Amino acid sequence: MAETNSIKLEGRIFITFDITAQTGLHIGGSDTGIEIGGVDKTVIRDPLTNRPYIPGSSLKGKMRSLLEKYGGLVQNQAIGQGKIHSCQTDTKYSACDVCQVFGVPGERDFGTPTRLVVRDVRMTDDSAKKLEDRTDLPYTETKTEVSIDRVTSAANPRQMERVPAGATFGPAELLYTVYNGSGCDPHADIRRLATVIAGLQLLEDDYLGGQGSRGAGQVKLNNIVVKARHDYLQPKQEVEEVGEFDSLRQWASDLETFQNTVRTQLGLTA
Among positive and negative, which fits the CA dihedral 122, 127, 133, 139? Predict the structure, then answer.
């Protein structure tokens, strides 16, 4: 008889925060058919507002990449022109917090649902208003760089578009789901919230987007709010607040208490 899998959604955790650029931020868009004042590298923009935004895929991918490096995980799955880590067996997957949180390819027959969803993050209205008519391009600056040919010493100038330091995007939203059932343990999912916090801390100490080794992409996260919801059969049920934190350091300072609060909010017994 074929094995029957049953997975229950126990609840969802909503994590919101603001992202402020500490240095110029460059997350590249498509340069096809675009000529903006001779800029070689443009940023990605919302086609409706023309404002720059941070794609959820960029934020999630950077978090995963940093966590893989921090954990020394083998890069064994080709993706585009690079590689990422992806567990190849059920045994390794069950013990891998990164793959449990961020997911594995659909062809893995042992994979359970991805826990983490990361939304696109739009520039705040306040930042957009401050930048209007004050920058080289709409909401952005141009930074000229010069590469030097090591053989001929010839200079090759190029211009890169960046969101200026001080601009804020938000609220960013991370949606984290807690599951129960076949291959899923809700208490392990709650424990793995520490992986999400670690990924965000690694991001703050690294950079987001391109040209990070040249000074771009340093970001700061603040105004962190965590909420939970578990009973979707009651449409009027309020999304309950778990906590508010000024910084990642404050959020991580008493992780056990935070995890116990989440467990209580979702109606899970220890």
Answer: negative
